[in-house]
Amino acid sequence: MASHLVVPTDPRAPRPTYPTCRAAHPLQTMRAMQREELVRRLNEDLQLELRSVVQYVHHISTIKGSEYQQTLVELSKHVHQELDHALALAAQIDFLGGEPSTRVPEVETQDEPNLALTQDLALEEAQLDRYRERVDEARKLDLPDVALALAPLLKQTQDHVMELRTALGR
Ligand SMILES: [Fe+2]
Ligand SMILES: [Fe+2]
């Protein structure tokens, strides 16, 4: 009958090491590169949200005229939501192992109210396109949690587009 040999272990002894150097599967490498690219694009989205905050703060304080008062109330709501968007993006970038960007793109100032609002609309439309792409990319990378975290940005950006189109009579 075989006897079970129990070797007493010394708790102070160094732990045995085993070779672990396995080359990454090409698919894993590709997936890692795609996630890196997603983080890079999310950082561009973050920079555009920071630009939104600066642009709205400038427009809210410089657009004059009683006919714009209702629009300015809407823009004041937008600016708080843009900050929330920036925070949500930074959280996802950090979660995916990236470093949230601190870069704020240059904002070209506009003196004429309709040009300022057109500038806001162009930025919101560009952001809406970007978030549609980003949600799709996150889903394709098996990151439904990231896609879900971006969903409020997608919806609120569409609301901002609609409000600005209405303000501009489009
Ligand atoms: Fe936003
Ligand atoms: Fe917005």
Describe this structure in words.
α3 runs antiparallel to α4. This protein has a single domain, classed as Ferritin, core subunit, four-helix bundle (Ferritin, Up-down Bundle). The longest helix is centred in the first third of the chain and has 37 residues, at 26-62. 68% of the residues lie in helices and 0% in strands. With 170 residues, the protein is an all-alpha fold. The termini are far apart. The mean pLDDT is 91. One fe (ii) ion is lined by residues 49, 52, 82, 85, 127, 153, 157.
Topology at a glance:
Elements: H1 26-62, H2 69-95, H3 113-140, H4 144-167
Bound molecules: fe (ii) ion (2 copies).
Secondary structure category: mainly alpha
Task: Name the bound molecules.
Answer: fe (ii) ion
Distance between the termini: 90 Å
The tally of helices reads 4
Beta strand count: 0
Summarize this, please?
The chain contains 4 helices and no strands. The chain has 170 residues and is mainly alpha-helical.
Observed structural traits:
Ferritin; 4 helices; 0% strand; 170 residues; mainly alpha; single chain; binds fe (ii) ion
